[in-house]
Design a protein that fits this description.
It contains 2 helices and 9 strands. With about 160 residues, it is mainly β. The longest helix is centred in the middle third of the chain and has 13 residues.
Length: about 160
């Protein structure tokens, strides 16, 4: 909303807050990742996406996995929560990371224009590819315990 008499440059703009649900899907010690391309940059993420109005986090996670990978999943356990808040605070992403189990379907890349690829990677490859947010060590540690620990807040992971 623009206030009469106050220049637009003097009005404090709040950061955009995005709530995202993503899923850790494992198969034979490999993790499923989605390759995104935005702003001329390509990088890998855990498949998932933004919560829509009236949708629970687990509903979001299942819908996004279906849209990006063609897989039907059961969302299992909340593992991590992290934030992405850049120094200039122009946006704010809150990520909820769940484990999941594939119930049916064959992997097929979705049609979203930012989605370039979808594939399984060995866990050790996470540090060799552009992967965001950088939670490689946390994923490896949780995998080593069978994702048995409590959910953890990982703090600001903006890079």
């Amino acid at each position: 909303m623009v206030c009469p008499g106050i220049p637009r440059s003097h009005i404090h703009q709040r950061p955009v807050i995005r709530i995202r649900a993503a899923v850790i899907l494992m198969e034979d010690n490999r993790i499923l990742l989605a390759k995104h391309k935005k702003g001329g940059k390509s990088y890998w993420v855990l498949p998932g996406g933004g919560v829509e109005e009236g949708e629970s986090l687990s509903e979001t996670a299942a819908r996004e996995i279906k849209e990006e990978t063609n897989l039907d999943i059961k969302v299992r356990k909340l593992i991590f929560i992290s934030e992405g808040l850049p120094p200039d605070k122009h946006r704010h992403v809150i990520d909820f990371f769940f484990t999941g189990e594939v119930m049916s379907g064959e992997i097929k890349k979705g049609t979203d224009e930012i989605l370039e690829d979808i594939r399984f990677f060995p866990l050790r490859a996470l540090q060799e590819i552009p992967f965001y947010p950088d939670i490689c060590e946390e994923i490896k540690e949780a995998f080593g315990t069978g994702f048995s620990g409590p959910a953890r807040f990982l703090g600001n992971k903006w890079t």
